[in-house]
Amino acid sequence: MTFTTPASHLIHDELSPTPEMTADCRAAGVNLQLERIARAAASTPPSIHFADYPREIAKRDIDVTDAARRLANELHLHLD
Fold it and tell me: At 9, which helix (H) or strand (E)?
């Protein structure tokens, strides 16, 4: 028993032409970018007041391995 599918129901017949799909993708990307820009423009700007930021910011400890120290010393960077 063989099933035949009408040509109108083939997947490739339902797709839009490539240039049209490309234009749709570009338009969607532009719309997303415009939405992000609009949200950023409507949001509250960051504060410029010194009091709104912490005075002491803890610095990260950087662990320098022996291999990195030897390499740095060979390059005369001296990470002692």
Answer: none
Dump pLDDT digits (tens) for 30-77. Answer: 778 888 888 888 888 888 888 888 777 777 887 888 888 888 888 887
pTM for the model stands at 0.33
Find tokens 């990307």 and name the residue.
29
DSSP letter, residue 15: S
* Distance of alpha carbon 23 from alpha carbon 21, whole angstroms: 5
Q: Do 35 and 27 form a contact (C-beta atoms < 8 A)?
A: no
Report the distance separating Cα 48 and Cα 44, nearest Å.
Answer: 12
Closest CA to 66 of 46, 80, 45, 49: 80
Both tokens assigned to 80: 């002692």
